[in-house]
Structures are given as C-alpha cells and as structure tokens.
Amino acid sequence: MRRGLPNLALTQGDPAGIGPETLIKLVAGRTDDRCAFLLIAERRALEGVYDLVPTFDRERLIVFDSPPDRERLEALSAEQIAVLDPVGGGPPVRAGRSGAADAAGALAAVDVACDLVSGGVADAMVTAPVSKSSIAKQHLPGFVGHTDYIAQRCGLERYGRDYLMAFLTPDLQVALLTTHLPLRAALDRVRAEAIVEALVCLDRHAPGRVAVAGLDPHAGEGGLLGEEDAATIRPAVEQARQLEIDAHGPESADSLFARARRGEFDWVLSLYHDQGLIAIKTAAFGTATNWTLGLPFIRTSVDHGTAFEIAGTGRADAEPLGAAVDATLDLLAGRLPRRAASVR
User: Fold this and answer.
1) Among 68, 169, 175, 249, which is 20 to 30 Å from 237 by CA?
2) How does DSSP classify residue 141?
3) Mean per-residue pLDDT for 315-321?
C-alpha cells in the first residue's frame, strides 16, 4: 500500500523531447519506499517510448481517465505507478519535432499537476522540460518558462519578488534576481529595490548566509570598473542587513561561487541568468535541481532542456530526474540539501 507516502506529480514535459523517456526510466529503475509517483503524461507520449526501455513492465501502470482522489492513489500497491493523461488524445509523437499538440500537452500537464498539488492530491510536483519556443510560438506568446507560468497561476507577481528561481546542488545554492530575459533587459532590472525584495523573499523561505554577486568585474573595484556595485548593490545589501537578513556583498562574481562551495555562504543571489547558471552547471551539470522558491507548494525540475536532438534514441539519462526527486523529498521534509539552512 502507498498509504502515508508523499505523492509526487511528475509531468511529461514536451512529449517530443526526452521527458516521457526519463519518466519511464525513472520508475523502471527506482525502488523507493519514500514516495509514490503520479505520472501526468499522455498515452501517446508513453506509448512512443516503451520500446526504449525494454526492461519496464508496462502492466505496472494504472491509467486514470480522470483526476483521482488521494484515497484512490493510496489504495494502489507499492509496485503500481499511477498515470493521468492530461489531454486524452492527439496525433502520434514525432520525436525531436515539437508541434502544436505537443506544446498543448506540455502545458496541460503542468496545469493538471498544479491543480492536483493545490488540491492536496499530490504533495509536490516535479516537471520535465518543456520547449519555451514551441509554447510561445504555437499557444502562449510571451511564455518564458515554468517558473513565471506557475507563479502567475498561483497569483504571484510576474516580475515581482514574491518568488525566485533557485538552483540546488550538494555544495552550491543559487537564486536568480532575473531569469529568462535578454541580458540588456536583465541589467535594467538590477535595481536596489528589486535586490532588497529578492533578499527578503529568500530569507523568508530559505534563510541563511547569502552573498549578492557583483555586477561589474571585481564588483567594480572601487569604481575603477563601474559604479553600479557601489551605487546600487551595496546600498541594497545594507538595507537588507538593517532588516536582520544575513546578507553580504557585492562580492566579486569571479571568485564568489568557489567561496560559496567551500562553505562561506549558504546562498548566492545572482543578478542574471547565466551568471548563476554557468556556475551551477559547472559544479553539477545534469544533477542540479531547479526549485521555484516562494510558491504555495513545492515545485522542482531538472536543470536541462528537452534534448530534442536525442529524443527517441534511447539515450536519455534519468539521473537528473532522480536527483530532482531526491531534492523534492528533502524539501518536503523541511531541509535543503546542504548545511544548516532550513526551509521555512
């Protein structure tokens, strides 16, 4: 019986990507008495990858035609895997080629998972990667990813600081001030008010010693290499410290991430996407976990994309999804993967 175990809703991502394959590989190779899985995936997507995982016994899948309640899920045996098709039909999946039906199915899976977690049927959601360009082109202009989309569904501010995109590895934790924006646009959003709001959000949900990365080389080197750090970032850090937040900086970004990995800081607040993600993916490529900090429920994801170039070849690796599941269970238990920081 699965009674008493946390239910994790795992979404399919873009059906034309590697998401469905990693879902099946995960449940085929994982024996875990710490949680139960509910796959939010289309039949057409799963049917296209069964042959890629010949060791998997598809009889283990229990397909629900409508969203189950928690009692029905808990009545399943430990070997059974619940599946809910968020769409109920569509053309065959063409691996590596995301069409309108694939983009719609990816969004539908996210919507269903959000509803299940919000309704208490699932305890957390773990998302496989979607194609931002496919969704934006074919269904939702302006779509830039899971983080903002889910936050908006929850009524949070799109560019406010009610939530943050964060990344977790065993020895490095990074939150992002800005996410999927062109660099020129991201730099326009590096304002003292935004930095303070981000530090307050981070301290509210995952307090610890946080260092704010500098914007200019060597954090401006006393004004020699730019005035932004002294004029904007330092006052924001000082204001956060007046709010009793353990904030530091601006710290020179060229050495900050190494210092954080050695334990000097629990968190780095990165000012723009690649400043933080280059460090994260160098430290733990493929096994870092994306966590949307600030939502009313726990949502995590893998740190990679749809990998259309290898979809349908059987080469997809489920280890990143497994790492995200492990991190999710840590978060459900009220702990972060590293040191003394804890989830509030």
Assistant:
1) 169
2) T
3) 95
| CB 247, CB 241: distance < 8 Å | yes
Q: What are phi and psi of 123, to 5 degrees?
A: -95, -20
pTM above 0.85, yes or no: yes
Strands 210-213, 267-270: parallel, antiparallel or unpaired by DSSP? Answer: parallel
Q: What's the half-sphere exposure (Cβ side, CA atoms, 13 Å) at 179?
A: 21
Residue 185 pLDDT level (bands cut at 50, 70, 90): confident
Residue 65 has pLDDT above 50, yes or no: yes
pLDDT digits (tens, 9 = 90+) for 260-279: 999 999 999 999 999 999 99
Phi and psi, residue 126, nearest 5°: -125, 125
Neighbours of 69 (CB within 10 A): 11
From the centroid of its chain, how far is CA 323? 12
Q: How far apart are CA 206 and CA 153, in angstroms?
A: 22
Euclidean distance between CA atoms 320 and 261, whole angstroms: 20
CA distance 33 to 44: 29
Measured over the CA atoms of residue 128, residue 129, residue 132 and residue 134, the dihedral's sign is negative
- DSSP element (H, E) containing 229: none
Task: For residue 293, give the 3-state DSSP assignment.
Answer: strand
Which of 159 and 224 is assigned the larger pLDDT? 224
Q: How far apart, in whole angstroms, are the C-alpha atoms of residue 155 and residue 295?
A: 10
State how far the Cα of 58 lies from the Cα of 321, in Å rounded to an integer. 20
In the chain, what are the domains?
Answer: 1-156+298-338 (3.40.718.10), 161-294 (3.40.718.10)
